[in-house]
Fold these 4 entries.
Entry 1:
Amino acid sequence: MALPQSIRNAAEPWTAKELRKLKELAADNLPPSVIGMRLGRPEPAVLNKALQLGIPILPLNRPPYGV
């Protein structure tokens, strides 16, 4: 049985490519839930990694895409 798309990489270490994408998506003002779906990671993992790297993803409730 395949893992849901949103957590396919949950147990895997973060790659340099994923970290670049995380920075890109955060800069694009996407909410952590959308970033998680695009990276195949749970939302808490996205938030934790962003916090570790000092990537701002706050406020969490802002609309995406600068709306």
Entry 2:
Amino acid sequence: MRLLLDGDDDRAVHRAAYQWADPGRGRITVDPTPHTTSPAYLALDVLRAMGRDTFARPEAERMSTDPAWRAVTCWTLATDPHEVIVLRAHRLTVERLRRLAAWRADTGIHLTLLAHTPEQADEQRLREHLTAAHLVDVATVRGTAAVLGAIGPAAVGRRIGPSPQDHAHALPTVPRSGVAAFRADCWRRQNATDFAHTDAQYRAGYAAARTWLAHTLQPQPPPGEATEPAGGPADPTPFSLQETEALRLFLARLTVSSPSPQHTVARVRGAQAGFLTRSLLLNVPDDLTSRAGPGITTVPLTPRTVHTITVRLPNPLRAAAIAALLFTGTDTSLLSMTQVASVEKAHATVAIDRDSRINIGEPPGPRHLYAVPPRARPLLHAAVEFRRRTPRTADNHGLFANCFGTTPRLEALIADAGLPIPALAHPDSGDDWHTAARCWHLNTPAPPAPDVLPRLGELRP
């Protein structure tokens, strides 16, 4: 740990510390709120330095001292700020220094305290406080020039403010045709530009399905080899429980970033075509666009959306709860069943075992699986860490407990986030579309790919 002593109380030192900060590259400068010695206020100052502007609304939920410092630790572990300068260190109490010491021990941050000590007595008192807080491995730098050199140059190219507005090419209403006629009908009904965009989504789904099938499912017998029993063609074989869970996760990953239901339909039809090339029949609900779930009632986690969540929701649990509503597109009654252990180690998947919670004693059914977009993974990481560091918490406890709850609590969460949540306004109360999807092994020779992706010149009526 470094202690920078600015005996001259030079404004250039204060300015250099601010200019050095770059949260996007893991460097933050904490300026403690004056006229208070509260450890909770210092935690909120740290969160603000990370870009979490604490509580924008006067009615927003507040965090007490322990949860606030737990949030500081969890956001540090999840988003990796690794260098910290704390200004006005000569005014820090022993309790505040102990909190900083615990933060440093838990996360391994490189901590620098910048003290403005024109009097010898101020320095002596600061050192006594550091000793009481068990911060004894201190390297001291004195003098304005040496302190400026220790701080280092100003950050270059740092972003200030939110990311640019989101933009995606809007697709027209796509036909309700099944997989056999979907692409041809799009070509007949859409102009060249719209079809090019629709077909790009279709081909992306087709390629994703072929790639996933090549790496996930067990190889099937070659065409003509053990595909028909002596009595004729075998009946289609439904996917096993494990295959069904894998299918749900694939469909969620395919569509979680979809900017509109039209994009989702095109991707899913392409995926169905890719499945047919492997003698697999993928059925999805006919009323796909009226269902809830990934790509239908979700919101892409773009940089601007994540920035909004980051700024407005410093509590990791509440930030992750809003993110989960956005990337799952499901109902809060299902999300409230999410356990701490439901988030896998890499924070890329959420698996909700609803059936075992409702049908106790019956054989397990496929879990509801959702893909976590890369930008949302730090939010889930921080939330899981927050829960596990909360006293008397186990892996089977609810991850989002007390986040949704009663209507007033949910309304307060939505107001704090300031984001539209399509799933909350969706009329469908049934299963999400990807959990209603079914797939069968057809046990017949696979058709060649050109039968599924014909040349468009052959489609003209």
Entry 3:
Amino acid sequence: MAALTCVQPAVAQPWPPETQAAPRAQVEFSGQVASNDTQRLANWVAASGDHRGLPFVIIDKAGAMVFVFDAQAKIRGAAPALLGLARADDEVAGIGARALATIKPAERTTPAGRFEAALGHDLKQDLLWIDYDAALSMHRVIAGKPSDRRHARLASPTPLDNRISYGCINVPARFYDSVIMPLFKGTVGIVYILPETRPIEAVFAMGEPRAPAGRIP
């Protein structure tokens, strides 16, 4: 997260009715290893048209991976990611207006959900705004403090050390420049962030019954 400039906020769109079961579809991952929830969500998005014919991104927090698809639900790339330090699925109220120094470790979350995203800028760099009001974005990996070792964490073979950011999603610079920027240039897209503390059905209305626990109103 970083200081903001005035760009168009992201606005989430309403969900399709829960009772509308989506037809099945199989999204090809072209050899990329994806979790079961990532595959389920990608298939549902492609079959239901929830992405509204726009490019979309699935962020798997548990696996610390980002999967990017074009408007036809064809995968355009995948890459490891750095995510919020705290393992949680909810946004802290008012977090986007606070200075980084005031944010406690337990508040450094990458919230789960569905977001309408667009390219923009903060005071330091260009980025993909996921939730403008919460200062949640995806951007090239930053250096941060030397003790953060962000580049080393991103390059490590395990997702266990990928939790370090204040909530934003850090990806390799080459991946951001060659995949994210071209796909989102001149358009908006949908970003889906998978939950890690509650079932996927409690966050995404995938035409299946939701689990009673953790239901979101």
Entry 4:
Amino acid sequence: MSKTHWNTVYETKAPDAVSWYAPHLAESLIYVERTGAGKAASIIDVGGGESTLVDDLIAAGYTQVTVLDISDKALDVCRGRLAERAAQANWLAADVLEHRFAARSIDVWHDRAVFHFLTDPVQRDAYVRQVMHALKPGGFAIVGAFGPEGPTQCSGLPVERYSPEGLHQEFGGRFRLLDHGLSMHRTPWGAAQQFVYCFCRLEQ
């Protein structure tokens, strides 16, 4: 993961000019609600960047939301958009593979578009270890990545594509697959991108 690359992306493109932009992450919100986690649950949006998920979570009454992104520029944009409401969330400018998460500190781990950039199996293993370390037993992981018919590159970088079964397999047997889904995301310029979501629970 390159901080320089992603800061350049966010410095040179408007928030609604990147391929992954969506006014609202409806599927993500549905999965968060399906966890049944209370409003005081610890929720982290990994690679949240300029995403509006934090806006909608705050509006829904969640009080312990953290947005993590490798790009401090993206987080600045998000905080600026939220204005005074930004104080209602926590902000981490960090590489998800290297950040020292507190053990068993997170109830819901959400990632809509980071995991598919991890093309090296070593990176993916490190990511899964981070999730297993940070999630509370019984906590939930909501991971979205490009589906089998999704693009092979994004923002000038190669990506991995997954079937629902393949994405779940990356996380292993301790993550019980509760549900999965394939969907089509429309980029701001109208192109279709297939996404797969896996909704899992870490076994106690």
